[in-house]
Amino acid sequence: MAIKDYLRQRFFPHIWCPGCGHGIVLSSLLHAVEELGLAKNDIVMTSGIGCSARISGYVDFHSLHTLHGRALAFATGVKLAKPALNLLVPMGDGDALAIGGNHFIHAARRNINITAIVMNNRIYGMTGGQFSPLSGCGKRATTAPFLTIDQEFDVVKLAKAAGASFVARSTTYHAKESTLYLKKAIMHKGFSVVEILSQCPTHYGRKNKEGDAPDMLELYKDTTAKLGSKALEKNPDLIPRGIFVEEERGEYCEEYDKLVDKAMGGAR
Ligand code: SF4
Questions:
Q1: 26 CA distance to ligand 1 centroid (A)?
Q2: Mean of the per-residue pLDDT values for the chain?
Q3: DSSP codes joined into one string, the chain
C-alpha cells in the first residue's frame, strides 16, 4: 500500500501553518505504518484537541477525535475492548502532560499496549501561543509576556519513572530516525512513548526569536545528539535522542485476561 492510501485525501489541504512540524511527524508515522505493512483496518488512532490532534482527521484508520486530554483514556477503552488492534495516540503538550497528564502516567504504569506520540512544540499553538508544561523557564508566550518561570517536564524521564516500557525521543529534523523509533514503538508489546520535538514557527518560534521553520529545524540538529555519541559525551547540555527504555513487562490486557481466566476457572 502506498503512503497516500493511508491518508483521507478529501480532508486536504490540512490546517497546519506553513512550516509546522506536525506534518513531518505525520509523514514519519505513515512511513512507519507502511514499512510495517499494517492494514488500515487494524489501526485505531485516538486524539484529543489541538494542532497535533488534527492528525486523526487526516489518516484513513479508525479514528476518534475526542476530548482535550482524554485521548489516552479513549485509547485504553478501545484497547481493552479490542486488544488485537494497534492503538496510536498522537498528543500535543496539553493532551499529554497538562490536562492529560494523569492519563499519561497511569497508562504508563499499567503498561497497556498503546503507542503514545508526544509532539512537543513547547507551546499551545491552536489557542494562540500560551505556555505549556513543556515550554521551560525563560520562554516568551502569550501568557508569559515577562518570560516563564515554570520548570518544564522532561517527557523521557517522566515516562520512564511512570513505568513506560518503551521510551524514545527524536525531532522533526531527524524524520527517518522518528520512523525507526515509531516502528519499534508500534511493535513493542506494552506502553510506548515516542517524544518528537516538533516546531511551531507561528507562535513559539516567533515569540522566542528562533526564526522560521528551517531555522528551528537547524536548532534541532545543533542542540540534540544521539545517545552514546561523542557529541553528547563532550557536551552533556545537548538534548539526547534515541531509545531510552526498551524492556519486556507483562502487558495490561494480557494480564487482565489471565486474571479473568483464573477467576472463571477456565469456563470462558
Ligand atoms: S499554530 Fe503552531 S503548532 Fe499550530 S499549526 Fe501553526 S505552526 Fe503548527
A1: 14
A2: 97
A3: --GGGGB-GGGPSPSSPTT-THHHHHHHHHHHHHHHT--GGGEEEEE-SSTGGGHHHHBSSEEEE--TT-HHHHHHHHHHH-TTSEEEEEE-HHHHHSTTHHHHHHHHHHT-S-EEEEEE-SSBTTTT-B--TTS-TT--BTTBTT---PPPP-HHHHHHHHT-SEEEEEESTTHHHHHHHHHHHHHSSS-EEEEEE---IIIIIHHTT--SHHHHHHHHHHHEEETT-HHHHH-TTSEEEEEEEE-----HHHHHHHHHHHHHTT--
